[in-house]
Specification:
The chain has 304 residues and is mainly alpha-helical. The protein has 7 helices and 2 strands.
């Protein structure tokens, strides 16, 4: 019931849903069945998603624009307004891509609850998510390169605040725990254990929110108590640039997990309907991995 691809033994030949409500005999393409809607619908091309690529292009424009603006401010080689304009355009494209991605991967399936995702659909979303994350590696890599240039100069550039302490340890433990709970949530979904899935997914959401609160409190402590802010020299720029970019990614992930929780409570997921959970899980594990690199390179590394 509800999967759209099962029939009772001895009944008519096995059929599957073609996304339009028509029943299509198993192994027969919609075009062969008389559905002439054209390419892009009814075949596996309908599952190809362009939105992750749009979002990646917008992110590249945003971060590139910020870099150009900083370069222009510091060196005068380029007008800073060029960077600002590119960054604004990047934000628009990024939000458009994310909006289209959420609509296609989350909201449309939520409205069509009886259609189970095909293996081709799942593979397409997972592969485009991995491609998006690959572009994100280069984004973080650019800021790590900037930090490397900071370290090449006189070190430390000024008195540093106490970066390594109990707060960063707690935040790290929270984020690592959220990755573990997300893994077990996904495993429970694949096993068909709905209660366990909901419990672990809700715990993951709570841990993600707790991490954001912890990071906000860390910023407050640095600015109010230590006088360490974005304007505190080149290291301040590198620190808040990297941690702020990561925090932005965590916030997006928390939003995605929140949508998953909403849909899970509606009963939208099952062992054969977990594409959205798989893609958000990949993203969340990536965010956690980046945090570990940040702690090792930026927090611990700066204190050495």
């Amino acid at each position: 019931m509800g999967t759209g691809d099962r029939t009772d033994p001895g009944s008519r030949p096995a059929a599957r849903a073609d996304g339009s409500g028509h029943r299509v005999p198993e192994g027969q393409a919609p075009e062969e069945y008389g559905d002439h809607r054209g390419r892009g619908e009814g075949d596996d091309h309908e599952h190809r998603s362009r939105w992750p690529l749009v979002a990646a292009a917008g992110a590249a424009g945003l971060y590139g624009g910020v870099a150009i603006a900083i370069l222009g401010n510091e060196t005068g080689l380029v007008p800073p307004l060029i960077g600002v304009a590119l960054a604004v355009l990047g934000v628009v494209v990024l939000l458009t891509g994310l909006g289209g991605w959420i609509e296609q991967a989350f909201l449309v399936p939520a409205r069509d609850r009886d259609a189970a995702a095909s293996p081709e659909s799942r593979e397409s979303y997972v592969s485009t998510t991995l491609l998006f994350l690959a572009t994100d590696v280069s984004t973080f890599g650019a800021l790590f390169v900037y930090y490397a240039f900071v370290r090449v100069g006189a070190w430390p550039p000024e008195e540093l605040p106490p970066l390594v302490g109990s707060l960063v340890a707690v935040n790290t433990a929270i984020l690592l725990a959220s990755s573990v709970t997300f893994h077990y949530a996904h495993a429970a979904l694949e096993d068909g254990n709905r209660r366990r899935f909901l419990g672990f997914l809700g715990t993951t959401l709570a841990l993600g929110v707790a991490f954001l609160v912890g990071q906000a409190y860390e910023y407050y402590e640095f600015v109010a108590a230590e006088g360490f802010s974005l304007g505190s020299g080149v290291f301040g720029t590198a620190f808040y640039g990297l941690t702020g970019l990561h925090g932005f990614h965590v916030a997006l992930g928390v939003g995605g997990i929140g949508v998953l929780c909403w849909r899970a409570l509606r009963g939208d997921y099952g062992p054969d309907r977990e594409t959205s959970v798989a893609t958000v899980s990949l993203y969340w594990h990536f965010v956690d991995l980046v945090w570990l690199v940040l702690v090792a390179v930026l927090y611990v590394g700066a204190s050495v």
